Amino acid sequence: MLIWIIFIGLTIVSYIISATLKAKFDRYSKLPMAQWLTGKDVAEMMLADHGINDVKVVSIGGYLTDHYNPVNKTINLSRPVYSEPSIAAAAVAAHETGHAIQHARAYSWLMLRSALVPVVSITSRWLSWILLLGIITVQTFPYLLFIGIILFSLNTLFSFITLPVEIDASRRALKWLQIRNMVPDNHYIYARDALKWAAYTYVIAALTSLATLLYYILIFISARDE
After folding, report:
1. Does residue 223 contact residue 138 with C-beta atoms inside 8 Å?
2. What residue ranges in the chain does DSSP mark as E strands?
3. Quick one: which H or E segment has residue 7?
4. 96 catalytically annotated
5. What's the 3-state SS for 26-63?
6. Chain mean position to CA 24
7. Residue 3 confidence class, pLDDT cut points 50, 70, 90
8. Stretch 47-53: mean pLDDT, rounded?
9. Which of helix, strand or coil describes residue 78?
10. pLDDT per position as a tens digit, 98-133
């Protein structure tokens, strides 16, 4: 019963955070950059300031789909972030550039996260089926669920390793924006606020993954006790 209360609570909090993030991004997208720099300009300037010249800044579709791809060394910015000269675009572009800097500096948490990506990608293809079959056959073959729990624990570990990676990228972004005077003093708090709410989504994702893991563990323990 407690685990379901936790799930419901996390679901509600996740919805609130997502809605708040969207509202804040929309609001801060209406605040113009003083130098009229787009997200693309901000990313390229931040890369240059850190001596990184082998990373490309490209435009992609979608909304809040921005990410850094370490495989082909590209900073992928959604069209509003890529082309609009706003506080929100600057904050998001600087954050993703923070990941590129982490990669260039071999930031330990990012390296660990990158090492887990192939494993998590492969296991995720079969994980849902293994867990479903594991629950169905838990009375006759409990170790199938145990295997699913081990695999799911990798996903949970991945979620928690993501937290310091995202927090550090935001720290690098805000520090650079402030040192470079990219954002007016009265607007800096908005850039910080946008990245703070973005970080909350990763926190909730990690906690939800942990709660789900505990749920499967409880099923396995209950089956063994019967």
Report:
1. yes
2. 56-60, 67-69, 74-78
3. helix 2-28
4. yes
5. HHHCCCECCCCCCHHHHHHHHHHHCCCCCCEEEEECCC
6. 17
7. confident
8. 97
9. strand
10. 999 999 999 999 999 999 999 999 888 899 999 999
Query: For the chain, how many structural domains are there in total?
Result: 1
Q: How does residue 4 score in pLDDT terms, banded at 50, 70 and 90?
A: confident
Largest CA distance in the chain: 68
Task: Assess contact for 158 and 116: CB atoms under 8 A.
Answer: yes
| First-residue to last-residue Cα distance in the chain | 19
Helices and strands: H and E segment counts in the chain: 7, 3
Calpha distance 6→131 (Å, rounded): 20
Q: For the chain, what percentages of helix, strand and coil (3-state, to nearest 5) are there?
A: 75, 5, 20
Single-letter amino acid code for the residue at 156: T
Choice among 44, 84, 96, 166 that is catalytic? 96
Query: Whats the size of the chain, residue-wise?
Result: 226
Pairing of strands 56-60, 74-78: parallel
Which residues are CB-neighbours of 108 under 8 A, at least 6 positions away? none
Give residue 78's domain range.
Answer: 2-225
